[in-house]
Amino acid sequence: MARILSILVGLFFTVALAWSFGKGAYTQITEPPAATAEHEFHLHPKELHLASDGPFGKFDKQQLQRGFQIYKEVCSACHSLSHVAFRDLAALGYSEGQVKAIAAGFQVPGVDPTTGEANTRPGLPTDYFPKPFANDTAARAANNNAIPPDLSLMTKARHEGGPYVYSLLTGFQAQPAALLKEFPDAKTPDGLHYNPYFANLNLAMAPPLTADGQVEYSPGNPKPTVDQMAKDVSAFLVWTAEPKLEKRNQTGLAVVLFLIFATVLGYMSYRNIWAGKKH
Ligand code: HEC
């Protein structure tokens, strides 16, 4: 009796599952979900190979310095880097004096010691990168109602962060005719810019890197083409998001080696303990 009952219950669930699957598949075929421009024209990030990729990855300090230069001369006009202090830049190979000079080149919020009024003063190595706008209202007012996000953790906040930033910076283009033909309502609104790597295809940032040689690299570095500058600043933002990456890779490697050693040791002692017994 119990056996028949359990077969019936099993049968009931099987039929219910098959039915709902069939129904779902049928609606999917007869009434497919409406296509959207985002779904059809959004692109996956391009490939970008950085020295810091992979379990043995190490930062290319020369490239990070170039990337920092791009951030400083271009992106810092709109984007903050709140989680990075000037003294952290020592990790890119800058000397103490250079870090001091870089910090002093930025104005950070301060207090007038005589009056107690808020003012600004040149940065110190212990200061963090200052925000470019006084507040969100000012940021919106200057950027077509969008707030430029903080870039410190951007490459962690987006899927495939490094390649994403690189693709975004090099991905600005005219809206494809095919898109407008298929979705006449999806025209890029005034003040926004078409970029297939951005999730909703139109973003409020104008292309920040527009001309080869926009930034001047010191001798011994590659030519500052738009592509090269985009790569370098992406590498820099991979560093800001995870400055301890090399240390983490090293620790991981040491742990894996230790675990392999411990496994071999464990197996040998197992053989030793059971050596006299018949298997
Ligand atoms: C003139 C101001 C301005 C400059 C200069 C600028 N940006 Fe932006 N950026 C913006 C604004 C505004 C947004 C927000 C766009 C939106 O949400 O539509 C943004 C968004 C971004 C995003 C986030 C995209 C996302 O997925 O949310 C990244 C990454 C970015 N900028 C990188 C950079 C880099 C790197 C530079 C320097 C090479 C730079 N930006 C220079 C204004 C600027």
From TrEMBL:
Cofactors: heme c
TM region positions: 252-270
Annotated Cytochrome c domain residues: 62-241
Classification via SUPFAM superfamilies: Cytochrome c (SSF46626)
Annotated heme c binding sites: C75, C78, H79, M205
Gene3D superfamilies: Cytochrome c-like domain, Cytochrome c1, transmembrane anchor, C-terminal
One GO CC term, this protein: membrane
GO molecular function, one term: electron transfer activity
Keyword line: Heme, Iron, Membrane, Metal-binding, Transmembrane, Transmembrane helix
UniProt remark on cofactor binding: Binds 1 heme c group covalently per subunit.
UniProt name for this protein: Cytochrome c1
